[in-house]
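Allow me, if you will, to draw on your knowledge of protein folds for a short while. I am sending you one protein, given as its amino acid sequence and as whole-number tokens for its backbone shapes. Kindly check, if you would, that the fold set down in the tokens agrees with what the sequence suggests. The record follows directly beneath this note:
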Amino acid sequence: MSSLSGGNAQKVIIAKWLMNEPSVVLLDDPTKGVDIGAKAEIYRIIRELADNGTTIVLNSSEDRELVTLCDRVLVMFEGKIVKELIGDDITEESLVSSALQISADVEAKEESNE
């Protein structure tokens, strides 16, 4: 596997996991560092798994990835769920505004404590 590109190596790892036919798959930045072609293939695999009933729990630092793949997004701050977005409410704008609202709330709280 050491001779494979990052994207192909990640696809091989995903394929190994899927041989066990898991009911739940946890993914942490599954396309980080891969080229656009490999990313599209990984997205296809994830979507196919979800469509076939596999539960996918995805952590991603890419808003576009969350919008593309997720049916439900939980926005967390300091270990707590602060916003839930479902279906068409999952947009890059709603993700950013949720994060900014959290940031604004924290700043306001800090100012009131001074």
